[in-house]
């Protein structure tokens, strides 16, 4: 028995003891083939999935390395069956390859005839294949490249795509690194992506994913299509690109509900692309409008299903996915893998936080007791109304006010899901409300004021779930949410994680009605945050200390040592 | 002795007489079935050696090379083949191998004779197709064409292929179904008189044609011992992997049995466990269904799972399970492995279809094969012949076993399956025996446990509590803590470590089963090596608060009695102050403490209270966990031949020799008597012998009723007993005269008596 930091479980989860001296080495060794599932304080959980193993194969790791890493760091003997299974799974990758044949164009090639026969006989795959050239090769119609990869993955024979990429129309793009530098991990992410050709970069919110995109564009030096979640995020991209690259305003087009510009670099929203009129997608031409050399998918975990279908047709273009988490509430991670590409880079939040690139955050759950009248309303409400009644209880208002009072000098966001509650809060706190119907112009104006410090408090609806950039928000208070969604939690936390000028700590409050559905959902969020490794404190509203008081926001514990 | 005279022994018995004591001992060791009860003399021995079952058994244990040598003798035209002719018959077999084979055969008396080797008739009958050749044409009542080589020469390829195939290992073939068209190569060969029909479906190739086709290799290719590629593994790695498999097996079986404890599986009418139950267990364990079936079988083999319940219609953990889970890991593994090794069940047969096309269920009685333990042992023993770290791939092992016991090759079908089972258990890793596996084979469960010791982790007595409300036990838990955690938390992942999750439901469950919030706080603080996260304390308090609201009064206890005076006495008693009693109404006292505490306090104060349920019924102790009474299937090994000990062996040989000497003793006219009636003739003869100091030949029946023949040097005759010295048996004995059935004087010059 050796004394390694890793415990390998029968269900292929790996438990990594963080305080072990070898923990860092071990993490580096297992990261390529295991997805980090939870990273609470003492023991991190990784999971070895077929997808993760194929990811590792695609990134050039072989089964021997995987088995070696497991055996070397494992504290207890590793079940032999598990190692065999790992080797078998990895062995399935690469039996099939997609390559460009000089004569026949795109072909599916196999090093194992039995596999090819199995695949050809599969009902799901057969329609995408063309003529058989020889015993080991089948023609693939270029337009089916993506769908074929998807289908092959589903039947457990993932194909290695070696067919290469078109360069696209060249366009000069340079990074303009005056006054700033690409951080090490950003550079590693870009290198990882470029070496692999296509794929997904996973970085926490606030870690500068936009810059990874920009650097990838500078690497490609070609016309680029950037797909973002909404217009505000698109404008943010545009601002960053103008500031950080040689691109000028004229070279960047916006393709949204309001404007339809096509330029060498075009930023389009998911929404406009997936708009249908009379059952047809109206804006598909966009993909053919230019000979794109690179397509960037922002927030890949939100990529809507129609975009997957469109992406399937774009397999000959380089694709870069950016996201904070590969967790999809719809479980379509394998589509991301087969259509955009494997995970090319991944860094845990806490590592980047430790390097000082994102702000350390403290998560506090404030529990509010409902008054008798509210409890009665809650008790007799219909089940579907209960969460809303609990989340929007007016007993929360004085507590929210008290929380905000703890941070008089900081930029504060109040985030909620219910518009009438937000309106009410806006009036009571004398703060402007930004919601879906707020015009982009109005949003920009308010954001500018907030950025400059004119405004200290903003009340925002779900729009805050997506890329808005509020660099100096140091405090977020969430008052209601979407049924404890993990994704939403990650996004909202991301709002306050951007590093503060003075390195201050960020505060992330959740105001919760005690003993209701609200606190049940809070438990989900609490688990998610704890799994991400954040300190999570529960405070009763009555015990919430103000600034200057014991345990207040600026209270410093006596150093322990 | 006989060789002096130059003539060879003419019969098996005569030849046996020429064998030395050592050789006879070797014969008895090799064929122990003829040794018990001790044969009275060589003739009896020879006739026992001719029993067909005994011959089959002896032949079954021979390897292919030895059998091939036997084939040479069997196929010879004359009875008796000179040993010196063997090398010419099997030119490709090295001489020393031939010698060894002859030695093996003569030792077992399957061939006899020294220079000239004879095959006893029972052996001839037992070997149906020597060297894979059919019977002679005459025996098959077949008239061969006049010029057989020419007839074969002009055959079309198809027909010739059929003949070649039948000239291989097996001369008998199945007639293909031709749907009445009546023409197939085999049928045409029948018409040509080159094949013989032995029944409606089968044909046999006559020996003459087989030999002709084999040309200069009439006995087929040499059956040399296969030399398979030896698998080499680092012994330390093998043991680590074995330990991994062992941990997995132990953990899974434990989980499985806990699941069955909570919800037993039904017993099918045909025996075994239902598919639905197996599916449920597979799902709960996150394993495949066959895997779940294997775990069920393994638990059953080890005696941890059996049929029980009030109607004996449920599969339940047995009482042995309670002991098992308290043991350390090596001992637990040894129980599993030992149960598996000696079991008559073949778990790998589960899921296969029987003759009627029905799949056999796990735990079904249809999985019993009485040969299973022997096959398991022979397969593992073959691996154990290799040094540590070396072994064989499954196919090679099967080939080797097939060579070792070709007549039992049909028994080898389960070998790949049982090797897979051995791998799952950690007895074998990639064809190499682990140290634990070797120990198991050599010295049983103790050896198995010793082999695994040091490889399996020691149990841990703590967990790591994390802010996400998970508890990680970084190793196998001590049983007590595991039991407690099973109540207060849910298992999320198991293996080397166990991940538990505390949830609202699990805390509520703990509260339901009588824990207080304080107990839980204390427990977590004690069990966790890391500080208890704040969220966990909040969760407990939240749930406890809700819990308390729902069971208003239920956490409190009452004391009631029709005797109000007694209640007043209890209330006034200083010794019951700890119970914090308060009068709620006349006849009813209540307490803020739990009923059990109040009961304890009252009992300690000398009262005799009884617990009561809210409905007024007197509470009894909670029922014990359901348990089946189990015995290990196959744990009691079949009454296999007890090996012949040295003393017994010597005694048996001595017995045969003595009987033989007595038999051979040339004797004068015998006096026969009916037992119990002492005739004057007998007494006269005996007294004459005593007087003259002449040895006598005695027929004697001992107290057990078995008869023997002896040559005795008489010493005295008195009181109805003859005292004398039995030279062959080397003992002084007293013979009851009334048990002597016949007497004769041994005449001078008798070689056997000298």
TrEMBL record, chain A:
Residues 399-545 form the Helicase C-terminal domain. The keyword Transmembrane does not apply. Residues 190-344 form the Helicase ATP-binding domain. This is DNA 3'-5' helicase. Its EC number is 5.6.2.4. Keywords: ATP-binding, Helicase, Hydrolase, Isomerase, Nucleotide-binding. SMART domains: DEXDc, HELICc. PANTHER family: GENERAL TRANSCRIPTION AND DNA REPAIR FACTOR IIH HELICASE SUBUNIT XPB, RAD25/XP-B DNA REPAIR HELICASE. Coiled coil: none annotated. GO terms for molecular function: 3'-5' DNA helicase activity; ATP binding; DNA binding; hydrolase activity. Belongs to the helicase family. RAD25/XPB subfamily. It comes from Geodermatophilus ruber.
TrEMBL record, chain B:
InterPro entries: WYL_dom, XPB/Ssl2_N. Residues 611-645 are annotated as: Disordered. It holds the Pfam family WYL. Residues 463-585 form the Helicase XPB/Ssl2 N-terminal domain. Residues 682-744 form the WYL domain. This is WYL domain-containing protein. It comes from Geodermatophilus ruber. The lineage of its organism: Bacteria, Bacillati, Actinomycetota, Actinomycetes, Geodermatophilales.
């Amino acid at each position: 028995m050796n004394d390694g930091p890793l415990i390998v479980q029968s269900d292929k989860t790996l438990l990594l003891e963080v305080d072990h001296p070898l923990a860092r080495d071990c993490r580096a060794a297992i990261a390529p083939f295991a997805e980090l599932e939870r990273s609470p304080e003492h023991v991190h959980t990784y999971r070895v999935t077929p997808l993760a193993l194929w990811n590792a194969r695609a990134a050039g790791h072989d089964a021997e390395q995987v088995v070696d890493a497991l055996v070397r760091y494992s504290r207890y003997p590793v079940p032999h069956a598990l190692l065999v299974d790992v080797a078998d799974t990895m062995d399935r990758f690469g039996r099939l390859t997609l390559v460009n044949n000089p004569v026949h164009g795109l072909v599916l090639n196999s090093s194992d005839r039995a596999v090819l026969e199995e695949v050809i006989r599969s009902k799901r795959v057969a329609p995408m294949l063309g003529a058989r050239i020889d015993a080991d090769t089948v023609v693939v119609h270029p337009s089916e490249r993506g769908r074929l990869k998807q289908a092959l993955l589903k039947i457990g024979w993932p194909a290695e795509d070696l067919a290469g990429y078109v360069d696209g129309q060249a366009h000069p793009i340079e990074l303009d690194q005056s006054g700033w530098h690409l951080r090490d991990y950003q550079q590693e992410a870009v290198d990882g992506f470029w070496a692999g050709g296509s794929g997904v970069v996973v970085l926490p919110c606030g870690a500068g994913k936009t810059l990874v995109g920009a650097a990838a564009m500078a690497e490609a030096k070609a016309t680029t299509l950037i797909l973002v979640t909404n217009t505000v995020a698109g404008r943010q991209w545009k601002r960053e690109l103008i500031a950080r690259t040689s691109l000028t305003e004229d070279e960047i087009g916006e393709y949204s509900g309001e404007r339809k510009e096509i330029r060498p670099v075009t930023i389009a929203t998911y929404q406009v692309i997936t708009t249908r009129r009379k059952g047809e997608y109206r804006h598909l031409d966009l993909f053919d409008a230019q000979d794109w050399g690179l397509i960037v998918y922002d927030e890949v975990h939100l990529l809507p299903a129609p975009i997957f279908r469109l992406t399937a047709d774009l397999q000959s273009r380089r694709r870069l996915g950016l996201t904070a988490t590969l967790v999809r509430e719809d479980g379509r991670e394998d589509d991301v893998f087969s259509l955009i590409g494997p995970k090319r880079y991944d860094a845990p939040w806490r590592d980047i936080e430790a390097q000082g690139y994102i702000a350390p955050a403290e998560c506090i759950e404030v529990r509010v007791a409902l008054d008798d009248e509210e409890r009665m309303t809650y008790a007799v409400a219909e089940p579907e109304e209960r969460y809303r009644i609990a989340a929007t209880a007016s007993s929360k208002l004085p507590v929210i006010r008290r929380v905000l009072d703890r941070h008089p000098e900081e930029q504060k966001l109040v985030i909620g899901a219910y518009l009438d509650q937000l309106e009410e809060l806006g009036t009571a706190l004398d703060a402007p409300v930004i919601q879906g119907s707020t015009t982009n112009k109005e949003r920009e104006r308010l954001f500018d004021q907030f950025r400059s410090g004119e405004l200290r408090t903003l009340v925002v609806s779900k729009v805050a779930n997506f890329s808005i950039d509020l660099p100096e928000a140091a405090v977020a208070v969430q008052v209601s949410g979407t049924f404890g969604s993990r994704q939403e939690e990650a996004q909202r936390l991301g709002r306050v994680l951007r590093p503060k000028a003075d390195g201050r700590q960020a505060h992330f409050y959740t105001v919760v009605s005690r003993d209701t559905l609200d606190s049940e959902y809070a438990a989900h969020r609490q688990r998610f945050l704890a799994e991400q490794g954040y300190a999570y404190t529960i405070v009763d509203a009555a015990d919430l200390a103000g600034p200057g008081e014991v345990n207040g926001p600026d209270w410093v514990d006596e150093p322990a040592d | 002795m006989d060789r002096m005279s130059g003539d060879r022994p003419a019969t098996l018995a005569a030849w046996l007489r020429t064998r030395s004591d050592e050789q006879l001992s070797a014969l008895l060791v090799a064929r122990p079935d003829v040794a018990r009860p001790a044969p009275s003399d060589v003739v009896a021995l020879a006739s026992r050696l001719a029993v067909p079952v005994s011959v089959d058994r002896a032949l079954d244990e021979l390897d292919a090379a030895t059998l091939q040598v036997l084939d040479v003798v069997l196929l010879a035209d004359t009875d008796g083949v000179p040993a010196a002719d063997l090398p010419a018959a099997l030119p490709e077999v090295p001489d020393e191998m031939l010698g060894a084979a002859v030695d093996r055969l003569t030792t077992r008396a399957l061939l006899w004779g020294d220079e000239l080797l004879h095959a006893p008739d029972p052996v001839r009958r037992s070997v149906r197709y020597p060297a894979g050749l059919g019977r002679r044409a005459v025996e098959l009542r077949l008239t061969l064409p006049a010029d057989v080589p020419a007839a074969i020469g002009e055959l079309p390829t198809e027909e010739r292929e059929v003949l070649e195939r039948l000239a291989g290992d097996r001369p008998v073939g199945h007639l293909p179904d031709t749907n009445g068209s009546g023409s197939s190569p085999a049928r045409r060969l029948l018409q040509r008189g080159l094949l013989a029909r032995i029944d409606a479906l089968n044909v046999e190739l006559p020996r003459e044609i087989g030999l002709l086709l084999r040309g200069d290799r009439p006995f087929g290719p040499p059956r040399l011992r296969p030399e398979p590629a030896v698998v080499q593994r680092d012994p330390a790695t093998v043991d680590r992997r074995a330990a991994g498999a062992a941990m997995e097996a132990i953990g899974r079986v434990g989980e499985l049995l806990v699941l069955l404890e909570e919800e037993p599986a039904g017993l099918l009418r045909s025996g075994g466990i239902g598919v639905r139950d197996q599916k449920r267990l597979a799902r709960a364990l996150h394993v495949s269904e066959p895997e779940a079936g294997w775990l069920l079988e393994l638990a059953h083999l080890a005696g941890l799972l059996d049929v029980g319940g009030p109607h004996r219609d449920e599969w339940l953990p047995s009482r042995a399970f309670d002991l098992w889970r308290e043991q350390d890991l090596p001992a637990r593994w040894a129980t599993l492995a030992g149960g598996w090794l000696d079991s008559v069940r073949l778990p790998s047969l589960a899921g296969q279809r029987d003759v009627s096309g029905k799949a056999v269920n796990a735990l079904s009685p249809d999985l019993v094969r009485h040969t299973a333990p022997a096959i398991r042992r022979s397969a593992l023993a073959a691996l154990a012949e290799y040094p540590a770290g070396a072994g064989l791939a499954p196919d090679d092992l099967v080939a080797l076993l097939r060579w070792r016991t070709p007549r039992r090759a049909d028994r080898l079908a389960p070998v790949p399956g049982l090797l897979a089972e051995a791998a799952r258990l950690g007895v074998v890793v990639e064809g190499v025996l682990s140290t634990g596996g070797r120990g198991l084979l050599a010295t049983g469960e103790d050896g198995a446990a010793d082999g695994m010791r040091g490889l399996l982790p020691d149990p841990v007595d703590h967990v790591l509590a994390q802010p996400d409300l998970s508890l990680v036990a970084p190793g196998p838990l001590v049983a007590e803590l595991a039991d407690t955690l099973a109540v207060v938390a849910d298992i999320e992942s198991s293996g080397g470590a166990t991940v538990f999750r505390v949830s609202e439901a699990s805390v509520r469950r703990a509260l339901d089963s009588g824990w207080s919030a304080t107990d839980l706080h204390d427990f977590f603080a004690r069990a966790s090596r890391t500080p208890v996260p704040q969220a966990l304390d909040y969760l407990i308090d939240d749930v406890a608060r809700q819990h308390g609201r729902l069971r208003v009064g239920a956490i409190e206890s009452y004391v009631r009695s029709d005797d109000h005076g007694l209640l007043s006495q209890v209330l006034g008693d200083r010794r019951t102050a700890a119970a914090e009693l308060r009068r709620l109404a006349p006849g009813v006292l209540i307490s803020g403490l739990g009923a059990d505490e109040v009961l304890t306090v009252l009992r300690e104060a000398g009262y005799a209270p009884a617990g009561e349920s809210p409905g007024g019924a007197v509470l009894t102790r909670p029922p014990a966990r359901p348990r089946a009474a189990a015995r290990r299937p196959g744990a009691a090994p079949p009454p296999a031949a007890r090996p012949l000990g040295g003393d017994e062996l010597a005694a048996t040989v001595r017995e045969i020799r003595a009987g033989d000497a007595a038999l051979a003793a040339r004797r004068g006219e015998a006096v026969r008597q009916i037992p119990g009636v002492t005739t004057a003739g007998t007494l006269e003869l005996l007294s004459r012998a005593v007087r003259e100091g002449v040895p006598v030949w005695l027929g004697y029946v001992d107290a057990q009723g078995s008869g023997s023949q002896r040559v005795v040097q008489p010493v005295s005759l008195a009181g109805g007993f003859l005292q004398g010295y039995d030279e062959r048996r080397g003992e002084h004995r007293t013979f009851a005269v009334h048990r002597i059935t016949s007497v004769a004087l041994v005449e001078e010059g008798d070689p056997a008596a000298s």
